[in-house]
Amino acid sequence: MASEIVAEPTSEIVAEPTSYSTEEAELAWAKSNLLSLDGGGIRGYWSLLALEKLMGYIATEEGRFDEDREVLHSFHPQGLPDDVSQIPPDAIEERRNINNASDADGRYRAMHRTRRFLPCHYFDFICGSSTGA
Question: 79 to each of 36, 76, 104, 107, how far by Cα in Å?
Answer without folding.
Answer: 28, 7, 8, 11
